[in-house]
Amino acid sequence: MKGKTVIITGGSSGMGKYMAKKFTEAGGNVVITGRNEERLQEAKKEILIEGGSLFTIQMDVRNPDDVKRMVLETVEQYGTIDFLINNAAGNFIVPAEKLSINGWNSVIDIVLNGTFYCSREVGLYWIDNNIKGSIINIGTTYSWGAGAGVIHSAAAKAGVLSMTRTLAVEWGRKYGIRVNAIAPGPIDRTGGAERLWESKEAAMRTINSIPLGRLGEPEEIAELAYFLLSDHAAYINGECITMDGGQWLNQHPF
Ligand code: HXC
């Protein structure tokens, strides 16, 4: 990671922030993006307590012009881009029949379209400059099962999984670019934990559904992302690695 540049979208909170911490500690040049400048600055302060190199870009992954600017500003700041982590997400619990068209579009725009816009723009930069970069998309285990109560997020993340595999084949074959995904289960200190299991009862139900009997830690996701971007994972391409304590397999508890 020393001297390598990584962009983490949605990097001012949750898993994004912990990945940014891990990568700065490992000597990387880290770019975090987010919609809210104040939150970006707070995250920067927190992440840089131990030192390191971090640059913030206020932008919205839903806006293709912002995404273009993200690439330009990163290259201006650090000279190149080595890795992209599509981490920005939007989600809220709502019964499918009550979800408005705007609500549907807003999550699809952030999760599905935003992931494509960022991958496309960074991918074009890599292709033009002959760089064998690597992408990690943050997915979820309900993207291949049922996301009851979060139909917008489930449909968008299923698309992200398909995008992961498709780009891994297209860009792996032609350009040596690797594209992988991480499917986290319930992870503590993240937007998911705050929004999706906000009541004590919901949190207990969630914990009881996990064979290992605990939530995941964001640091564990950061370690996995670090491994996937490293040379140790140079032959892993198009894979989605689940980190959920075995939760999604727990269909018939006894
Ligand atoms: C019903 C809702 C709603 C809610 C928003 N809407 N929240 N409908 N219930 N709780 C509707 C609004 O009424 C509006 O529709 C439409 O969605 C757009 O809302 P805005 O607030 O105008 O959108 P915007 O400001 O763009 O915000 C996007 C957002 C917001 C997705 C709605 O929640 C957001 O910014 N989230 C980012 C952070 C986040 O969600 N993190 C959690 C990620 S966790 P109408 O029809 O009224 O105009 C995750 C993985 C979980 O993704 C994995 C678990 C294992």
From TrEMBL:
InterPro entries referenced in this protein's UniProt entry, alphabetically: DECR2-like, NAD(P)-bd_dom_sf, SDR_fam
Any single biological process term in GO: bile acid metabolic process
EC number: 1.3.1.34
Pfam families xrefs: adh_short_C2
Record keyword Flavoprotein present: no
Gene3D superfamilies from the UniProt entry: NAD(P)-binding Rossmann-like Domain
One Gene Ontology term of the molecular function aspect: 2,4-dienoyl-CoA reductase (NADPH) activity
Keywords: NADP, Oxidoreductase
Name of the protein described by the UniProt record: 2,4-dienoyl-CoA reductase
Organism: Lederbergia citrea
